[in-house]
Amino acid sequence: MQTAANTPTSIYLDTFHKNPACKDDRKAIEKKCKPEPEQSEEDKKRGKPKPKRMGLGGKLAAAAEALDDAGKMAAGYKRDKGSKTAFDGNSWMDDHCTRMWFSPTDVADPELEKKLSDMLGKIESNKWSMLKGGFDELAEIAVEKAGGVAQDMATNFLLKTGAKAVIGGVLGETVVVPVVMAAWTVSDLFSTAEKLAELAGDKGKAALDALKKIDNIGGKAKDILESYKKEPHRAHADAMSLIAQVDPCLRARKCLLVPYKNAASDGSKDEEESAKRTAETGKKTTVKSSKAKSQAKHGGGCCPGQTGHHILPNAMVEGAGCPGYDYDSAPTMCLEGAKNGPTHGSHGKAHQGLKDAMRDYKRDTGKYKLSYEDAKKHAIDAVQRAGAIQCERKCLEAQLDAHYKCSGKELNANAGDGGAKKSPPADDTPTEILH
User: Fold this and answer.
1) What is the DSSP pairing of strand 331-335 with strand 369-371?
2) Are strands 331-335 and 258-259 parallel, antiparallel or unpaired?
3) Is 408:344 a contact under the CB 8 Å cutoff?
4) Distance CA 160, CA 163 (A)
5) Beta pairing, strands 331-335 & 307-310
6) pLDDT score recorded for residue 184
7) I need a surface site. Which of 167, 170, 296, 424 has the fewest CB within 10 A?
8) Is residue 179 classed as helix, strand or coil in its secondary structure?
9) Contacts of 285 (CB under 8 A, 6+ apart)
10) CA-CA distance, 397 to 399, in Å (whole number)?
């Protein structure tokens, strides 16, 4: 596995690729985040359009195309020609960092608001088609998990909707459930989807949740856009979280934890910005690459607009004597939102979930310390509720254990919501509370 430049392979990344507990999560990333082949130079010269991504992810990417193009340009993204898989280099980002190129800020931007409105409007207008794509994905997960029982259930759904003639994928995008548009109702779909999700486990529950979010996109879009001018960070973070929960690749990649330093600025020189500042001031100026530019360059962290969230915050681990712990190398999950506040995307929701758990723990026990095993349980509960229910708990545990080596240690019952003394703020973050 390739990692960011000058970054040694982390033991928990190795754990993700080799531990049997991570097999299904790894398989999901391989399949859902596989880069689309690059368009050949010959096809470009002929003016042949780049083939469109299929499925739900492709529809979301099409809706967010204007935002993504602007984000790639701002991040200076250049696809690594030697990067071919979901795990090596940055090619996976080209097709799969849908709506994840900009971090939310406290400053309202009319142009960004317009692009957000356009994206959410396109999703709403294509809701039926996206529901079909989401249902296809859920059925595929269920068939992989439950085999013929789920396949029969999906087929029976088609028969009830009069789609018998197209079973086999003649008109559909997948061979699992090629649904004819307008041949079914939302209630028909959800009646079967609920049963398929029961067969498919937590990954099925996450896919069902994505379906529900698509179905309710109109109300959510209205809330996001109405709040943008007053609370631009919250609105933007909520829009990102919405896409991340719906998009199959972004959902899958949350299960692969990345070193915090891979999700932040790598400290390298931004040649273009340095030259610009030097010209403006008349003095030689060196500007470090932003978080977005660093991540866009190496591809070994999160999408440029996401935030690397320490599942076990520094305030919890600090002073516990865990021999493997290092803040910059510690495993983080790629979440949405640059603040820790409870109303700011999945990142804020994860912080709030752990804060609530630590409040209850201290109230119920009267203790201010807890075992590593208990801390790990509460921390994983928080991120799963914030958008990572699809991740195998044993896989997340294995990655955390490989780094921290905290077995038998007592940790602080501190959720990192302002109590940490040494926790640095996230890179490029208008920090509300220390991360």
Assistant:
1) unpaired
2) antiparallel
3) no
4) 8
5) antiparallel
6) 64
7) 170
8) coil
9) 274, 277, 278
10) 5
pLDDT, mean of each 10-residue run, the chain (435 residues):
45 93 96 84 69 83 93 94 92 94 93 94 90 90 92 82 43 41 72 94 96 93 94 94 95 97 83 67 74 92 96 96 94 91 84 96 97 98 96 98 96 77 37 31
The pLDDT value recorded for residue 352 is: 94
For residue 105 the two structure tokens come to 């800020």
Per DSSP, the residues of 387-404 read: IITTS-HHHHHHHHHHHH
Confidence at residue 341, expressed as pLDDT on a 0 to 100 scale: 66
How many Cβ atoms from other residues are within 10 Å of residue 148's Cβ? 9
Residues sharing a CB contact under 8 Å with residue 242, sequence separation 6 or more, in sequence order: 213, 217, 220, 224
E strands along 241-382, which residues? Answer: 258-259, 307-310, 331-335, 369-371
State the pLDDT at residue 53: 77
The upper half-sphere exposure of residue 115, i.e. CA atoms within 13 Å in the direction of its Cβ, equals 18
| Alpha carbon distances (Å) from 407 to 22, 121, 212, 410, 411 | 20, 49, 39, 9, 10
Nearest-angstrom CA–CA distance, 169 and 368? 58
Nearest Cα residue to 239 out of 101, 385, 142, 428: 101
d(CA 135, CA 188): 11
CB 315 within 8 A of CB 415: yes
CA gap 389, 125 in Å, rounded: 28
CB 243 within 8 A of CB 250: yes
Do 105 and 132 contact (CB within 8 A), yes or no?
no
Domain ranges of the chain: 50-82+97-253, 256-412
Q: How far is CA 309 from CA 160, 316, 343, 349, in A?
A: 45, 14, 16, 11
Residue 412's H or E segment, with its range, is: strand 410-412
Tokens representing residue 417 in the block = 């919501």
The Cα 32–Cα 174 span in angstroms is 14
Of 302, 296, 266, 307, which Cα lies nearest the Cα of 76?
296
Buried b (16+ CB within 10 A) or exposed e, 345-376: bbbbbbbbbbbebbeebeeeeeeebbebebbb
Q: Is 332 helix (H, G, I), strand (E, B) or coil?
A: strand
Beta pairing, strands 258-259 & 307-310:
unpaired
Question: Which string of DSSP letters, residue by residue, matches 190-225?
Answer: HHHHHHHHHHHHHHHHHHHHHHHHHHTHHHHHHHHH
